[in-house]
Amino acid sequence: MALHKDSYVELNDGHKMPVLGFGTYAPEKFPKSLAEQGTKMAIEVGYRHIDCAFFYGNEREVGRAIRAKIADGTVKRGELFYTGKLWSTFHTPERVRLCLEKSLKDLQLDYMDLFLIHTPIEFHPGDDPLPKDKHGRYIYHNTDIRETWKALEECKDSGLVRSIGVSNFNHKQLELILNMPGLKYKPVCNQVECHIYLNQSKLLEFCKSKDIVLVGFSVLGSSRDESWIDPKIPVILEDPALNTIAQKHNRTPAQVAMRFLLQRGVVVLAKSFTPARIQQNFQVFQFQLDAEDMENLDKINRNLRYDYTPMWSDHPKYPFHEEY
After folding, report:
1. Is 56 among the residues known to form the active site?
2. Nearest in space to 166 (alpha carbons), one of 157, 178, 154
3. How far apart are the C-alpha atoms of 259 and 265, rounded to whole Å?
4. Which of 8-12, 71-75, 141-145, 273-277 has the lowest mean pLDDT?
5. CA angle 173, 174, 179 (to 5 degrees)
6. Which of 90, 116, 190, 243 is within CB 3.0–4.6 Å of 167 for a Cys-Cys bond?
7. Coil, strand or helix: which one is 116?
C-alpha cells in the first residue's frame, strides 16, 4: 500500500492502528517531564499513535500531554491511538484489570486503544515492580499465560480497552494463546525489538500468517543504557550500507532505517525527545526505497538483539532462547 502520514493497518478485531507511533520510554536518568513535552510535540507534528507503559513510570506526564492537545483542539480523542502495557507483577488474573485501571487513572483517560502483556516474563505479584530476595535475586512467578490472556479478554469486553495484544513473545508463546481452548480474541499484535540488525523476518512471516501485526521497537537501535547494553555493540545509525542509501535519497539514516521496516509491513515506534528528530522521524512518508535498497538493507541483518534482558534468562518463560 502507498504509505502516507495518515496510513494505518487494520487489526484482526476491526480496529485501526496508525503505522507510525511515538515511543515514550526513557532510562531512569531522564526527567519524566521530557515525556510530556515530547508527546505534545509529537501530536503537533502529526503522530496519532502514542506508545507507553505502566512500567515506564511516566503515564501521568504522557496523559497530561494528550489531554492538553485534546483541550487545545489539535486532536480529538477518537483520532488518537494509545497503547499501554500490563506489567509483569500483574499477570495473576485478578490483578490484570487493576493494572489497567491504575494506568487509566494516571492517564485520566476513559479507555485505551491497545493493552499488551509487556513481556511473558512474570515476577512475584505485589507493589515492587522488580521484586528481589535478600540475596538480590529476582523473585519470579509463573501464572499460566492463558489465564492472564482470559483476564485481558474480560478487560476488552468491559470497554476499558479496545484491542489486546502481546509484546516480546516468541512464536511458541503466541501459539499457546492462539491454540487455547475457548479463545475469544486473538492478539492483534506482537510488539518486539526490530531493526536492520534484527529484522525478525521469521517472526514477521509467522505473525502475518496468523493475521497478527508486528510492531517494532528500538527501530534505531537502543538508548544504549550502560546498565544493560554492551557499549561495544555496533551503532545502527553508523552502518555504512544504511548511510550509503540515506545519501542516495538525501535522507537521514534514521529515516531510511524506519522506512525499511514500514515497507515490510512492520508498524514502527520511533522514540526521541529531541524536537528536530521528532519532526524528522515523521518525514518517512515523503520518499520510498526501491527493491535494490530493500535487498541491500535485508542483507545486513545480524540477528543482533540489544534488549535481550540477560538478567532474566533463567526465567521459565524467557522468550529469547527460541530462534524467533
Report:
1. yes
2. 178
3. 10
4. 273-277
5. 100
6. 116
7. strand
pLDDT tens, residue by residue, 77-120: 999 999 999 999 999 999 999 999 999 999 999 999 999 999 99
Cell of 48: 496519532
H/E run at residue 85: strand 81-86
Q: Say whether 4 counts as a known binding-site residue.
A: no
- Superfamily of structural domain 8-306: NADP-dependent oxidoreductase domain (3.20.20.100)
Per residue in 7-53, pLDDT (tens digit) is 999 999 999 999 999 999 988 888 999 999 999 999 999 999 999 99
For the chain, the maximum distance between any two Cα atoms, rounded to a whole number of angstroms, is: 56
- What is the C-alpha separation between 75 and 67, in angstroms, rounded? 9
Question: Which residue has better confidence, 2 or 288?
Answer: 288
Residues with Cβ within 8 Å of residue 92, at least 6 apart in sequence: 125, 141, 143, 147, 148
Residues 215, 190: contact at Cβ < 8 Å?
Answer: yes
Domain ranges (residues) in the chain: 8-306
Sequence-distant (6+) residues with CB within 8 A of 294 are: 260, 263, 264
Q: Is 67 helix (H, G, I), strand (E, B) or coil?
A: helix
* Number of DSSP helices (H) and strands (E) in the chain, helices first: 10, 10
